[in-house]
């Protein structure tokens, strides 16, 4: 309605439904709300057959009849008995299933908890055993190293002389240094050619010619990265007597390189050795740090090398697969359990016409091949002699002596070798049943005893060749056979894969890596500390070059500290130290075996990771080698950053100081290298790209004024009798 509450309140309004009262709750201008009785009331004046109560509203003397009200009757639903039984049975089954699941879950939880505790106990026992093994191995190794240190007092560290060091650094990968070849020419022309080469040496003193020469070669498509490194090393030898000039050329070329990379991505500079200047820098660092290696870092590196070699040799090493029980490299880890024991042999060394010496007790393993035994015996008998002055294992036979006349030559292969199908096993001391305390002799090999020249070993290598069984050859094995999967029918290959996978699953063998890492930790720390220490004066060349990089960054507005850090890392650790750590034979007169090289590679990679700024996120798929040193790398990174910061804060090295040091090195070492051969090798590249070099010189007005092209034509006429425009 309208204006319902103008003249009345809700208490005065009476609302009825039949005989029942509808309680008024709200009265507004337009609405009246009331709450009816819960049950349908009886009608007051029943009319008609429906007997429904009337809905009336009394407002004072006004009565309003608004119609009849009918309540909905909710009839109670009927639920069939069968359905009730079904629901009951279903609920019982569900309850039973839930009960069983809860029971199984609780049982599995208890089992899992028991397994967890069992694994936890196993891990604790494993950790304890690894720790105990590390302590024992470390104690044994320290004892051995103390004995070795006392030997070094008498014999000294077998450093290479400067000439051998320089040749191995400058020309890696060459079986023989090209400087050893000599000038290959007719005697009648030798004097003329040598005069021409001296003229070439003088021409190289022209900075304009030298830079034009290098840039011209580098612009040729056929001038490969290998050629660039070779030419850089030849230039290093040719200019070795003028290291101040060499350094000036290096700075000029480096400036060009910086400008080139600043336009692209400065962080990639000096990352690889793809240009002549990058190899020149490697050689320059190697020349300048030779004294530091001999006086400071060399001892720690040599002791680390000997510690690795001693530790690797204490366990089995497969002569065919080159895998070892004691290693840091998971790719070279011998996972299989090999039964072995240590034997002490009494060694006699016999030379041609030389009386046998007093027997020397030496330790080997009964699972070693005969070649491995000879190498270990030579290491122990000639421990005070550098490698190049020892007899080679291939030049000696191992003779087992028993009684007066009992002499037996032992070899890797003979008629007694065990053959199974296409597999032949290399002979070991175990095979010959050599007892502990046996007497053996190293005797010069005679031609009649050589029986495996054709197929046993690759010339100059120690790895037996695996010939193809299909061609009727024998496949050799030592401790573990290589996979035979390719020879199996297809339906059996899957099961073999499963067996291989099952064999690889026991990561328990990786504790051997941890044990080796723990044993060598002190020696690795000592080496990294001596390399990255500023407690003693930093090599002048390092300070000078780092200042040069800082200056270059300032000139090109490079303020990102990460970029400068990368430049320094790429110029010193990556370019020099990694090379030396991975290749001790560059500085020492030693032989580095494959399994020792595998360990050194891991240590070198760890050093490289320590020099990078980026954080390495480690996960399940990370290389094992990175996980091994995951806790140590942050500490090493701090050492590197402190090293760079300390160098930056020291007093700058002046050009005068650097030139004085370079002049002294030139005087000390210039006579060591055959610069005429280097000039002759350089001329071969001049001859190959003669027209391009002459064109580049003629196009430059300054070069024309200096008559550089004319001088090169004179050299060509002298060295090669070349017909020129003269």
From TrEMBL:
Superkingdom per UniProt: Eukaryota
TM region positions: 85-105
One Pfam family recorded for the sequence: Plexin_RBD
UniProt keyword annotations, A-Z: Membrane, Transmembrane, Transmembrane helix
The Plexin cytoplasmic RasGAP domain, residue ranges: 156-693
Limits of the Plexin cytoplasmic RhoGTPase-binding domain: 328-442
PANTHER family: PLEXIN, PLEXIN-B1
UniProt protein name: Plexin-B1
Organism: Characodon lateralis
Annotated gene: PLXNB1_1
């Amino acid at each position: 309605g309208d204006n319902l509450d103008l003249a009345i309140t809700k208490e005065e309004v009476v609302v009825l439904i039949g005989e029942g009262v509808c309680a008024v709750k709200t009265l507004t201008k337009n609405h009246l709300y009331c709450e009816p009785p819960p049950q349908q009331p009886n009608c007051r004046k029943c009319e008609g057959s429906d007997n429904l109560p009337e809905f009336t509203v009394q407002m004072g003397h006004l009565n309003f009849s608004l119609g009849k009200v009918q309540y909905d009757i909710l009839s109670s639903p009927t639920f069939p008995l069968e359905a009730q039984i079904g629901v009951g049975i279903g609920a019982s089954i569900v309850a039973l299933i839930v009960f069983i699941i809860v029971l199984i879950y609780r049982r599995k939880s208890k089992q899992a908890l028991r397994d967890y505790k069992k694994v936890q106990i196993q891990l604790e026992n494993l950790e304890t055993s690894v720790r105990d093994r590390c302590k024992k191995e470390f104690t044994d190794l320290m004892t051995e190293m103390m004995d070795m240190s006392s030997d070094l007092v008498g014999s000294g560290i077998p450093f290479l002389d400067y000439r051998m060091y320089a040749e191995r650094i400058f020309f890696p990968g060459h079986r023989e240094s090209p400087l050893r070849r000599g000038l290959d020419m007719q005697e009648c022309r030798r004097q003329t050619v040598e005069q021409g080469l001296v003229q070439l040496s003088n021409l190289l003193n022209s900075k304009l010619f030298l830079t034009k020469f290098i840039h011209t070669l580098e612009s040729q498509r056929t001038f490969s990265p290998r050629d660039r490194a070779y030419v850089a090393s030849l230039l290093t030898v040719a200019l070795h007597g003028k290291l101040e000039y060499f350094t000036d050329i290096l700075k000029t070329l480096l400036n060009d390189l910086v400008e080139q990379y600043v336009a692209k991505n400065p962080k990639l500079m000096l990352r690889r050795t793809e240009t002549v200047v990058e190899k020149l820098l490697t050689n320059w660092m190697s020349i300048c740090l030779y004294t530091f290696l001999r006086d400071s870092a060399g001892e720690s590196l040599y002791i680390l090398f000997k510690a690795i070699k001693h530790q690797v040799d204490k366990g089995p090493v497969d002569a065919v697969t080159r895998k070892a029980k004691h290693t840091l490299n998971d790719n070279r880890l011998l996972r299989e359990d090999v039964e072995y024991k240590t034997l002490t042999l009494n060694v006699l060394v016999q030379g041609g016409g030389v009386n046998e010496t007093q027997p020397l007790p030496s330790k080997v393993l009964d699972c070693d091949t005969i070649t491995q035994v000879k190498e270990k015996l030579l290491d122990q008998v000639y421990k005070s002699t550098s490698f190049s002055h020892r007899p080679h294992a291939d030049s000696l036979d191992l003779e087992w002596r028993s009684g007066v006349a009992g002499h037996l030559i032992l070899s890797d292969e003979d008629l007694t070798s065990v053959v199974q199908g296409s597999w032949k096993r290399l002979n070991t001391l175990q095979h010959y049943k050599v007892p502990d305390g046996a007497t053996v002799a190293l005797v010069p090999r005679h031609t009649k005893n050589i029986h495996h020249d054709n197929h046993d070993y690759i010339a100059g290598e120690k790895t037996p060749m695996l010939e193809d069984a299909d061609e009727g050859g024998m496949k050799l094995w030592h401790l573990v056979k290589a996979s035979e999967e390719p020879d199996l029918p297809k339906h059996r290959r899957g099961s073999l894969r499963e067996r291989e996978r099952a064999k690889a699953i026991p990561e328990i063998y990786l504790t051997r890596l941890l044990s080796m890492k723990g044993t060598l930790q002190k020696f690795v720390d000592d080496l990294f500390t001596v390399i990255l220490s500023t407690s003693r004066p930093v090599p002048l060349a390092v300070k000078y070059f780092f200042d040069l990089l800082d200056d270059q960054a300032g000139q090109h507005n490079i303020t990102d500290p990460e970029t400068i850090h990368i430049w320094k890392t790429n110029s010193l650790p990556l370019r020099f130290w990694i090379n030396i750590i991975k290749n001790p034979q560059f500085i020492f007169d030693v032989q580095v075996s494959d399994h020792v090289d595998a360990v050194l590679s891991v240590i070198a990679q760890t050093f490289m990771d320590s020099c990078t700024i980026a954080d390495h996120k480690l996960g399940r798929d990370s290389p094992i080698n990175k996980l091994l040193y995951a806790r140590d790398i942050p500490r090493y990174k701090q050492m590197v950053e402190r090293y760079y910061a300390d160098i930056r804060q020291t007093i700058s090295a002046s050009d005068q100081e650097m030139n004085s040091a370079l002049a002294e090195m030139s005087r000390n070492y210039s006579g060591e290298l055959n610069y005429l051969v280097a000039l002759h090798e350089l001329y071969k590249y001049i001859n190959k790209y003669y027209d391009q070099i002459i064109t580049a010189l003629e196009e430059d007005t300054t070069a024309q004024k200096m008559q550089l092209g004319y001088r090169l034509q004179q050299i060509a006429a002298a060295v090669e009798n070349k017909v020129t425009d003269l």
